[in-house]
């Protein structure tokens, strides 16, 4: 039983560290979207896109 508990704790700790690293990296390398991109997308016809 101790082996299973220690394995769960070690894997949980590794997962927690990996999640924190991924969170930090995603915040550091975040790319802001240009607001004009959404405005141009709204102006384009979206019906049957790719049909022509």
UniProtKB/TrEMBL annotation:
Signal peptide location: none
Keywords, alphabetical: 4Fe-4S, Iron, Iron-sulfur, Metal-binding
MF (Gene Ontology): 4 iron, 4 sulfur cluster binding; metal ion binding
Domain 4Fe-4S: 32-52
Descriptive protein name: Ferredoxin
Species: Segatella copri
Lineage: Bacteria, Pseudomonadati, Bacteroidota, Bacteroidia, Bacteroidales
């Amino acid at each position: 039983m101790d082996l299973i508990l220690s394995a769960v704790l070690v894997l949980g700790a590794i997962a927690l560290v990996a999640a924190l690293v991924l969170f930090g990296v995603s915040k550091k390398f975040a790319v802001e979207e240009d607001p004009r991109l959404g405005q141009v997308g709204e102006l384009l016809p979206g019906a049957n896109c790719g049909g022509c």
